[in-house]
């Protein structure tokens, strides 16, 4: 069960209203100008980098400034991006350290059983024994599998591995996740 989205981290602004679906999803972070023709280096923060192509409009910075991509090309582990509106090193430098967003309504559909992280955040987490653990508040990406952070009403956060033997069901319509607690997974059980 993989959740795909621009990687959500507490340091990345979500582009979302306080409640409900996000309006924008992070797809990259602009770093520094490259060359003299207005290209800028971008760290890619999306599982769908193929969407970042010429003639696509993205939204940059806290004000979600719409910019049209003129050209992209790979550069080591990043992407060099050229925007229509920026034609030299100095002007591209104005975009340094800003996040790049796409509109959430334009996100690609996922196969059955896969979810965007923002769809999972806020789900009530219940056990198959009928106990409510709390609300899924964050997702950690690890090498092996994601880890869901569940915040109870009282007490410490609960870390649940996002594996099929633990996560039994996700029901977005009901806003609920059903989990099975393996022996030793929670210290006071």
Detailed description of the structure:
The model is unreliable at 1-12 (pLDDT under 50). The protein has helices spanning 89-93, 117-120; strands at residues 24-34, 39-44, 57-60, 65-75, 78-83, 99-103, 124-127, 132-140, 147-151, 158-161, 167-171, 176-179. The longest helix has 5 residues, at 89-93. The protein has 189 residues and is mostly beta strands. The protein has 2 domains: 24-106, Elongation Factor Tu (Ef-tu), domain 3 (Beta Barrel); 121-179, PRC-barrel domain (SH3 type barrels, Roll).
What structural keywords apply?
six-stranded antiparallel β-barrel; 2 domains; six-stranded mixed β-sheet; 189 residues; SH3 type barrels; mainly beta; 39% strand; Elongation Factor Tu (Ef-tu), domain 3; elongated; single chain; disordered N terminus
Summarize the structure.
The protein is mainly beta and 189 residues long.
SSE arrangement:
Blueprint: E1 24-34, E2 39-44, E3 57-60, E4 65-75, E5 78-83, H1 89-93, E6 99-103, H2 117-120, E7 124-127, E8 132-140, E9 147-151, E10 158-161, E11 167-171, E12 176-179
Parallel strand pairs: 7-12
Antiparallel strand pairs: 1-2, 1-6, 2-5, 3-4, 3-6, 4-5, 7-8, 8-9, 9-10, 11-12
